[in-house]
Design brief:
This protein is α+β, with helices and mostly antiparallel strands and about 220 residues long. It folds into two domains: about 50 residues, no CATH class; about 160 residues, Intergrase catalytic core (hpI Integrase, Chain A, Orthogonal Bundle), CATH 1.10.443.10. Helices cover about 40% and strands about 10% of the residues. It contains eight helices and six strands, in the order ααααβββββαβααα. The strands form two sheets. It has a three-stranded antiparallel β-sheet. A two-stranded antiparallel sheet has the order 3-4. Strand 1 and strand 2 form a beta hairpin. The longest helix has 16 residues. The protein is globular, with a radius of gyration of 20 Å. The relative contact order is 0.14. The mean pLDDT is about 90.
């Protein structure tokens, strides 16, 4: 079933787009142009929209995650630290290259993300590829702290500008599903926070900007 593959929000958005194309009251919809006589999406049973109260992790919890990642070793530590203090989405962080860093401006330039599409090789249902961020506003420059810049600079040693900062074995980048299962899940479990998502670091970053008195416009732009 499609509900097993897509979120409720994605299904609702898709149906609304289809409804606009077929029977929208504005623009050249199929009904207005005479190609259809009714809206076939009417009466379609949609899954209920999920409601989830967002509770950002506390600073203590975030440092517990970062500490657990450091103990486990590998790229998890740098990814957890970068996620907590830049607010990047998981797939934006995994698509980050060294030439996306403004070394003298202390900024991280979000220009790419890893996205899933249906497989074309006949062997895999899905495949991951590098694309522009999810929306125009998602392309942004994030002001990075000195500690983040130092960590990125340490990772840069001996690496070409076009290399992925967090390399993997999937076309040069880490497969997001593999990251969730093999990198992030052990970190959350070791920190005693099983079920915590990498995306929760994004909420932490936003909460810290608000706590520091940043304007809503600034928070919006930094979050993309």
């Amino acid at each position: 079933m499609i509900e097993d593959e897509l979120s409720s929000k994605t299904i609702h958005n898709t149906v609304m787009l289809l409804r606009t194309m077929l029977a929208g009251k504005r623009g050249p919809s199929a009904v207005r142009r005479g190609f259809a006589f009714h809206d076939p999406t009417m009466g379609l049973e949609l899954p209920p929209l999920e409601s989830r109260q967002i509770m950002p992790p506390t600073p203590e919890q975030v440092w517990a995650l970062i500490g657990a990642a450091k103990e486990l070793g590998g790229m998890g530590y740098a990814l957890a630290y970068t996620g907590a203090f830049t607010g990047m989405r998981r797939n934006e962080a995994l698509g980050l290259r060294f030439n996306d860093i403004e070394w003298f401006g202390n900024e991280v330039n979000v220009r790419h993300a890893i996205s899933k599409r249906r497989g074309t090789d006949g062997a895999h249902k899905w495949e991951w590829h590098v694309v522009p961020p999810k929306s125009r506003k998602s392309s942004r420059r994030i002001a990075a702290t000195e500690s983040v810049m130092k960590m990125l600079a340490d990772l840069k040693v001996g690496k070409p500008d076009m290399a992925f900062i967090f390399p993997g074995d999937c076309n040069g980048f880490i497969d997001p599903d593999k990251f969730d299962a093999e990198v992030w899940k052990p970190i959350a479990e070791k920190a005693g926070m099983a079920g915590t998502r990498f995306h929760d670091l994004r909420h932490f970053f936003a909460s810290q900007l608000i706590a520091q008195g940043e304007t809503a416009a600034y928070v919006r732009d930094q979050m993309g």
